[in-house]
Amino acid sequence: MYCKRFQLYVHVTRHARERMTQRQISESVLSDLLESGELRYKDERRLWVAKHVSDRADNLLCVAVVLEDRLIVKTVMHHFCWEE
Questions:
Q1: What is the per-residue pLDDT across 5-63, written as a single tens digit (0 to 9) for each?
Q2: Quick check: is 24 in a domain?
Q3: Are 71 and 34 in contact (CB under 8 A)?
Q4: Residue 61 lies in domain
Q5: Which domain of life is it from (predicted)?
Q6: CA angle, 39 as apex, 51 and 59 as ends, to 5°?
Q7: The whole model's pTM is what?
């Protein structure tokens, strides 16, 4: 998978794939989330990407990612809430 937004290939960790399966999040939903979700940076390399998906009851969906030579998806969360 390639993310146009970050202009990087995407690597989904084993942990993130397991969470995607548990939470019934497809690669197409993941791709849409990465391309159009709201971004919040922890630092220059680590960030969260979150988005509401209209046909899901467990919103907000969020992925924790690391920017390296690829976009590394560390985990996938649901029922997410931004900390203020």
A1: 999 999 999 999 999 999 999 999 999 999 999 999 999 999 999 999 888 888 789 99
A2: yes
A3: yes
A4: 2-77
A5: Bacteria
A6: 20
A7: 0.91
